[in-house]
Amino acid sequence: MKILIADAFHESLPARLEKFGAVTTDPARLAEAEVVLIRSKTKATREYIDSAPMLKMIIRGGVGLDNVDQAHAKEKGIQVFNTPAASSVAVAELAMALMLAIPSRVIEGHMSMKEGKWLKKELKRTELYQKTLGLIGVGRIGTEVAIRAKAFGMQVIAFDKFVAASPHAKLVSLDELLAQADYISLHTPLTDETRGMVNAALIARMKKGVILINTGRGKVIHEPDLAAALAGGQVRAYGTDVWESDPPPPTSPLLGAPNVFMAPHIGASSTENLLRIGDVIVEILERHYGKK
Ligand code: NAD
Q1: What is the whole-number distance in angstroms between the Cα of residue 62 and the centre of ligand 1?
Q2: Strand ranges (DSSP E) for 118-207?
Q3: Mean of the per-residue pLDDT values for the chain?
Q4: How far is the CA of 190 from the centre of ligand 1 (A)?
Q5: SS3 for 113?
Q6: How confident is the model at residue 138 (pLDDT cuts 50, 70, 90)?
Q7: In this predicted model, what pLDDT tens digit does every residue of 178-212 receive, in sequence order?
Q8: Is the keyword Transmembrane in the record (predicted)?
């Protein structure tokens, strides 16, 4: 069997997969591949799938399958898998890191000291303690964020279209969440319904000065509307790992905004998570091709 590792996984993965067959990381060998392993960078579009006539299986190391043309894969008899449970802690920790760094002024403190400035008086901090966190989407990652936010003394409320109760968050309507939350953290998948969901109309229903955290998907936010809300003060700050496109174009209105705190889509990229993803990939291959 020929396996193409198309994106960045843990460095131990090629050796772990050799028992199943020939492993390559050369994308030019797509045409020979029977199994392709991708993360976010590779888009398994119709054209990509059509360039791989031997392909039998696509495994996406990660949660969302929005970068795979699942309908076309199905038509061609190609099985598609993901590793949905592996990444929850890694992404939740990054959401918490952004949520802590913004009110604690960590990034401005660091950057200004690098520039030789001492902004002890200027960098006023606020606390997470006793603030209300609103989670939009309380599945695997949202739940891990809820558990961590409660440890910081936050009140955690959540809106989820398909979840009615959670041991870790009080489920409320979207209107209640928008009216009450000091912080809003996004944890829905990208679907036809969530695409562009956070637009000017929705932002206007949030508390003035809300801090928005996005480790879900960039396209859930209408970036120009958010940029306007950040400039006008309706949103105090935006902490994000995800973008309308990876990487955002230099013209993105968010890149230059002083109250945007950014990560380059590294939510799932912890060493521990990449090892867990490797474990799940080995399990999937063993299930289909037998233990070697
Ligand atoms: P999950 O399926 O466990 O949870 C998603 C939740 O969103 C579910 O409870 C679902 O009911 C809810 N939901 C769906 N549509 C909704 C809507 N219209 N309104 C409100 N709630 C809605 O998934 P998860 O493992 O928690 O992952 C969530 C998302 O995080 C993924 O789909 C992916 O887009 C993103 N993600 C990002 C990274 C990263 O690197 N930053 C890594 C992994 C996952």
Answers
A1: 11
A2: 132-136, 155-159, 170-171, 183-186
A3: 97
A4: 8
A5: helix
A6: very high
A7: 999 999 999 999 999 999 999 999 999 999 999 99
A8: no
Q: Which residues are paired to 81 by β-bridges?
A: 59
For the chain, domains (ranges, CATH) are 2-86+271-289 (3.40.50.720), 88-262 (3.40.50.720)
- The Cα 136–Cα 194 span in angstroms is 10
Confidence at 55, pLDDT banded by 50, 70, 90: very high
Token pair, residue 198, equals: 């956070």
Distance, CA of 152 to CA of 279 (rounded, Å): 32
pLDDT at residue number 64? 87
Q: Is 137 helix (H, G, I), strand (E, B) or coil?
A: coil
The reply to whether ligand 1 has any atom less than 6 angstroms from the CB of 95 is: no
d(CA 139, CA 136): 9
Structure tokens at 86: 């592996």
141 lines ligand 1 (CB under 6 A): yes
Q: Which two tokens stand for residue 87?
A: 């990444």
Supply the DSSP symbol for 150.
H
Ligand 1 neighbourhood includes 91 CB (under 6 angstroms): yes
Cβ atoms of 40 and 265 within 8 Å: the answer is yes
How many residues are listed for the chain in this entry?
292
Measured distance CA(68)–CA(41) in Å, rounded: 11
- The ligand 1 atom at the shortest distance from the C-alpha of residue 138 is 9
